[in-house]
């Protein structure tokens, strides 16, 4: 029974980390899009998908907590350290994606306006 509890607690930790990462991703996505003037239609599906995934993981977290019950010991300290790396990776990847997207959008606009090769 202890082994099953350990597996569930590991899964719980992983899902909590996913929720934190997804929420950070949505916040960073909307903040960066606003900062760069990105149209909502360019990133709306990403936000919808991330929010859907958050709801899924939160449901799984609730189920696991119900099954495990009781105390959770040292999971908090371990999860917080691991979540920082995930957030940094997500934020860097997103910023690079926004930059690339804005460059591509700018080049596309230049071509349409006759500023590019023709």
Polypeptide structure, described:
It is a single chain. The chain is elongated, with a radius of gyration of 20 Å. It has helices spanning 2-36, 40-68, 75-112. The chain has 3 helices and no strands. Helices cover 86% and strands 0% of the residues. Mean pLDDT is 78; it is low at 73-82. The longest helix is centred in the C-terminal third of the chain and has 38 residues, at 75-112. The protein is mainly α. α1 (2-36) packs antiparallel against α2 and α1 runs parallel beside α3. It has one domain (2-112).
Rg (CA only): 20 Å
Largest sheet: none
Structural class: mainly alpha
The counted number of beta strands is 0
Strand content: under 5%
Q: How many separate domains make up the residues? A: 1
H and E string: HHH
- Output mean pLDDT: 78
Figure out the total of helices.
Answer: 3
Shape: elongated
Quick overview:
With 118 residues, this protein is mainly alpha-helical.
